[in-house]
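User
Here is a favour to ask of a fellow structure person. I am asking you to supply a protein in sequence and structure-token form. Please set it down just below, with no commentary around it:

Assistant
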Amino acid sequence: MAAPLSIRLHPNDNVVVARVDILPGTPVEGGIAATQLIPAGHKMLTRAVAAGGALRKYNQVIGFATEDLDPGAHVHTHNCAMGDFERDYAYCADIHPTDFIAPAATFDGYRRADGRAATRNYIGIVTTVNCSAATSRIIANKVAPLLEAFPNIDGVVPLTHGGGCGMAASGLEMDVLRRTLGGYARHANMAAAVMLGLGCETNQIAGLMKAEGLAEGPKLIPMAIQDEGGVAKTAARAADFIRELLPDANDVRRVPIPVSELILALQCGGSDGYSGISANPALGVAADLLVRHGGTAVLTETPEIYGAEHLLTRRAVSREVGEKIVERIKWWEAHCARTGGAMNNNPSAGNKAGGLTTILEKSLGAVAKGGTTNLVDVYHYAQSITAKGFVYMDGPGYDPVSATGQIAGGANVLCFTTGRGSVFGCKPTPSLKLATNSAIYRRMTDDMDINCGTIVDGEETIEACGRRIFDLIVRTASGEKTKSEALGIGDDEFEPWKIGATM
């Protein structure tokens, strides 16, 4: 039997989502006919709504009608807008015991000398400032030809960025940058690292290493281009250092490790009207399975939970944890006010073309990635993640920046849902791309790892798709290459959060 033309997500909703383009005059739900073209992924009204009335999807408010609307109307940016409404934070109202799975599953990973679990084996060149970016790439290019003889090393990754100077020597922005760089330098997926600076930058190597508790040693060497006598001498010395440690870095073997030691970063980008229907809730099922096996799942992108944060506060294990979420929301509101922005600047043009209308709608779909288990802790950007279970990390909605924070916090595998077609990679952590619809999966099959459009097509349940995702997470953690890894993507997506002014 053919799937219906539309998807209803809750009996109380007054909109449905089009599975395919619905032509004017076509009867959809309960015989209601579309009064205009409803593009695939977009919303059609099923009950009359007066101007100012609430429009509901997921049984939640996604916006308010800007004019009187009749059944069959196309609901989108031309007739739906943001508005203030009360959210019931109901701290801890929805917490419940976690149904742990025993025995826990395992993956084949690398066990580091300090006991941590790694899913990949890279050597990093961590730059303290943009002025050392080009040199880091020269070093990586010098070493790359040597790696053919060392098959257990995944590569040398230069981590370049646009900051490190022209900023305050202390305070929030410097703290965030140093946390991020320190998190990458010590990441379990890094066998060793060069800490590379220019020498005169604000973000001095000595200050960074002291702040982050890093010490020079056989697997971490700090270098400043000015101290070494220039680019050529720096590149030669760094290449010699890396060349000497290649045999030791290569001397690793994958062993069975409990999946409780996986830290899964949850990301979405290039979202569409199907994201909250297919890939995001399916990823939520996978996140729940990981938590039930004792692992950690990390949700982020605070501007993209705006308007849906009450769904997380209700799952907080304590009021204190829930209030951390609300505090971050208030910080973002103040941050936008200071910088002349607005929280509803999100969704993007691509999101809107795919059917998303307001940040409320986007957020309600985005939080589905976090599954249903209890929220056990909330972290600032790039803080080390130590809790087991479902956690939240503050960060922007811009995917490279928020993912960089998660990886700095220790995430050793990442899942990225997309409806428009993101091609994101993020060395040293493998990135899986989950397509929300079958059309984008077929069009970008070389980039997409899993098709979740089977849910929209009526061919698979959310639960079954979530189990497929979980199985692929385990295989990926065990060494199976992702599509982005096969294409060599991931060197350029490192993007620390720049919060303050560039001076």
